Amino acid sequence: MIASRIKRFGVGEGLANRFLVTCMALGFASVIIAVVAAAWMTTRTQELSRWVSHTYEVEIAITQALNGVEQAEATRRGYLLTGQEIYRTTYVQAATKVQPALWRVHWLSRDNPEQQRNLAALRRELNDLQRVRNASVALMAAGDRPAAVRLFADETGARRMRRIRDRAGAMVTAERVLLDRRREEQAASLRAFYVTLGIAGVLLVLSALASLATVLRYTSDLGTSRDQLQSLNDSLETLVAERTEDLTRANEEIQRFAYIVSHDLRSPLVNVMGFTAELDAATSAIGELIDRAEERAPDIVTDEARFAAREDLPEAIGFIRTSTQKMDRLINAILKLSREGRRVLLRETVDVAALADGIAASLQHRLDEQGTTITVQRPMPEMTTDRLALEQILSNLIENAVKYLQPGRPGRIVVRGSAWAGRTIIEVEDNGRGISAHDHQRIFDLFRRSGQQDQPGEGIGLAHVRALAYRLGGTIDVRSEFGQGSTFRLSLPTVMNEEAR
Amino acid sequence: MNDHRSVSIVMIEDDEGHARLIEKNIRRAGILNDITHFTDGTSALDYLFNASEGPALNGPALVLLDLNLPDMSGTDILARIKSGPASLKRTPVVVLTTTDDKVEIQRCYDLGCNVYITKPVNYESFAQAIRQLGLFLSVIQVPDPEQA
């Protein structure tokens, strides 16, 4: 359930991320497009503006040339009329202004073949005009005024002048047309610029909105998932607390049950054993009576009576005795386990190696007899746990190893320890008779034993070991191959939990 | 000072077998005092507090108390005896029970129990314990209620 939720959050996150990135990319792309468009549009507008001013320059140059021509005409007429020298000098001045203006027009409109053609025609007309004018002015200067006036009257000056004006007007009009077109282009380019800017702006705003929405949604998703995780965590903690409480209660119940049962079982056993002893005492009294009767009056002693007093009764009492003794041992075992479960554990630093050495030393006599060796491998980790419980566990395991050796094979017992991730693993390995696979779990049950029953015992030791391991917050298991040996592996928290029970 | 009335033994024990075994072993130890046997707490308390020959009103006595009783806990009886009238309060109480729980033993001593004996399942030990109790009974100085 938790896993699926987390998975769902993960997918949502991925989608949101992709969408977010897309929006951001779109936003940045639109900004870049807007900048490029603006730059391009600005360049283009500048160019167009230059072309517009160029057109004006051409127009001005044409007008200047025309002005020069008109002025020259006016001064020539003045000269012809009055013969005053001032008109002639003014005429020469005006006439010389025409050529530079024409050259300027030529240079400005060098890219426009139509204007060049117009200009060439204009230039021809002007050259003709100039020639006639110069001739008339020269005649006048020579003092031949009538010839000059005649030449003036004969010439086609007025018509030519009109043609020149028309030609110049046409050129100006052509430039105007160009100007209009360029203005239009400029306006269109500006419009395109604004449209591009507008589109980029809209895109930017849209992507910003989308990003904002995604971020908001993502944030709220995160918040929700955090809340859900929090509540899951809380409920898990509550669950764990509840389970722990249940377990504790169940454990206490079992302890109490074991204690009461063992006590209440003991009570009748006191009677059985007590009265068996009474029976025993009575039997010996009867036996004596039979003995005396056989001596004095053998005829009253039947075989049956003799047999009952000497064989049946002692035998029956013997069986009752051994059975009740066994029952007493079993009850004591339960009582011991129950008491062990109620004992308050004490935390202290325990040197496991020293502990194992102590246990080995206590068995030394037996080890020497059997030729068995116990090796406590070092380094061995230190632990903080209940010393008594750990000692009971280890001594049970080591004693078992010593007890269940393979006959004819010198016993080699190894105790080793290692610490890993807050837990200490202690292994007790032997080369003894081993345990068949189907008994690996069973041997930890109370009153259950495995293999050949040639050693004394009630099947309590390993049950006790397991109960103690659980109490210390650990586990115990066994790896064994029948006939090869066994390794008991004890896994305990290196530092016992304060709340261990 | 010396009272010649013999100390009577009040035995509160719900198990008839145990009672019989205790009595037999007491007799074997040579104790011949009267033994009054009760199998439940209610009638025992009634006797202790109200009977004309009971320890509250009359002669010296000794109480043998089992803790596991059907109608009430032996510690309750112990508490009642030790908070009763002076003559009853001074009556020695021997707790004789199967429970060997340390806490339980401590509680009994706290409540004023004089001797605590665990009934061993092993009969020899049991008989031994009772005989020791008999020795104890022969040397015990039971206070005279009239001098209280």
Automatic annotation (TrEMBL), chain A:
Catalysed reaction, written as an equation: ATP + protein L-histidine = ADP + protein N-phospho-L-histidine
EC number: 2.7.13.3
Keyword Transmembrane attributed: yes
One of the GO biological process terms: osmosensory signaling via phosphorelay pathway
Taxonomic superkingdom: Bacteria
Native source species: Sphingomonas aracearum
GO molecular function, one term: phosphorelay sensor kinase activity
Name of the protein: histidine kinase
Transmembrane segments: 19-41, 192-216
Family annotation (Pfam families): CHASE3 (PF05227), HATPase_c (PF02518), HisKA (PF00512)
InterPro entries, A to Z: BphY/WalK/GraS-like (IPR050351), CHASE3 (IPR007891), HATPase_C_sf (IPR036890), HATPase_dom (IPR003594), His_kinase_dom (IPR005467), HisK_dim/P_dom (IPR003661), HisK_dim/P_sf (IPR036097), Sig_transdc_His_kin-like_C (IPR004358)
Assigned keywords, A-Z: Kinase, Membrane, Phosphoprotein, Transferase, Transmembrane, Transmembrane helix
Residue span, Histidine kinase domain: 260-496
Automatic annotation (TrEMBL), chain B:
Keyword Phosphoprotein among UniProt keywords: yes
Alphabetized UniProt keyword annotations: Phosphoprotein
Entry keyword annotation includes Phosphoprotein: yes
Residues found modified as 4-aspartylphosphate: D66
InterPro entries: CheY-like_superfamily, Sig_transdc_resp-reg_receiver, TCS_response_regulator
Alphabetical GO biological process terms: phosphorelay signal transduction system
Entry's transmembrane regions: none
Superkingdom of this protein's organism: Bacteria
Signal peptide (residue range): none
Domain Response regulatory: residue ranges: 8-134
Name of the protein described by the UniProt record: Response regulator
Organism: Sphingomonas aracearum
